[in-house]
Amino acid sequence: MNSRMSRADDLRDAIGQFVDERYLNQIPQHGNTGWTPHRLAVTALLWSWGNQPALTQRFRQARGVAETLLKTELPQCWQGFVKKLRADHSQLKQTLMSPLRTQSQEISQRQQIIKGRPLLAVDGTRLELPRTADNEQFFGTTGQSGQARPRPSTWLTLLWDVASRTPWDWRSGPSDSSERHHLLEMLDELPERSIITADAGFQGYEVWRRLLEAGHDFVIRVGGHVHLLHEYWDVTRQDDRVYLWPEHAREDDQPPLELRLLQVETDDEPMYLVTSMLSSRKLSYKQATEIYRRRWGIEIFFREHKQTFERERLRSRAARNVAVELDWSLLALWIVKLLGIGGLQVHDHRPDELSVALALRAIREEMDSLRPLPAKSLWTRLAAIKDDGYVRRDKRSRNYPRKKKRGKPPGPPKVRVMNDEEWNQLRDLNLRQ
Length: 433
Fold this sequence. Notes:
433 residues; alpha/beta; 9-stranded mixed β-sheet; two-stranded parallel sheet; 15 helices; 44% helix; elongated
């Protein structure tokens, strides 16, 4: 018994680093007062750490462990829990993200490429949803090779702190959501003077202009569909000054965006980056290359979330619950990573040496050690088992194994010399400034 209580204390202390009762219980309460904000947050976190196939099963386990940790009896109704979680979701998420970001920043400050400049990567991915009419109507469907029937999915756009290898912010929506619009929605949440790195999906005059106006810089990959201007005939593309000035911006008399174009040699084909940091003293060629190389970590995080954390397919059958399940899964994985990094720092290991699988296993083993015995006997539960009667389709048409097909890498951007009209308009704009 003493060992059980000691393990409960350990898990309670670990959760308490991020789920602070003093701040959470300041959130105004409405409706079901059996779920205080603190009890709700602790149970939701445990619920998100669970790996049972059904959300209701995860709730039953989480509620049992939460009762042990909080030393109180909690409401038993799943519907009441998820309804209350939806109602308080926005405030709970905002309250929890503050200490998570603080800890991520503390880790990042020891790992920065450019001192004093936070580095964040941005990218998007799709997560599959159950085939229900509600999900299909709200989120839309996306077909995949080998699927006889498209599956509904939600789009996730993530801002990821490169140095700490943890999330920073995210937006989600229907399967056809624009990741660039999501990025613009998150501008107010960026740390001051951030550097954003992204792949070729985050291009465009409006996105880059908004980033610059907000006081941030960027290092972004470009491809053949990007049209840049140069003032002189000699265009080297090695480390050259170029302009992004689309026709609609010139017609509105808006100034061009002045950028550096970098050609990075790789094992396959040259890669092209643009950056808003015009001075090589502030951002060297080597630093720009390293920044984009580290962007790959966000792809690893998506794999951790989908495969290791088993969230490639969410479980919510009601569209109104999808954002709640997704947000809590990201918060829960964020906490797993911070707890794991905290453990690594005892031995002076780096964040990129963390095994998320082992950290998650350690937490789930603690939860299992505190799980109460089933309320019903084995024979009672066996007597209640009955097939659901659902007629499943033949799986032979699914064309296993499926491998992600990568498209052709982006080619070089199109760079041309300014014509006389463009050059004169640029000179007039400079004279007015």
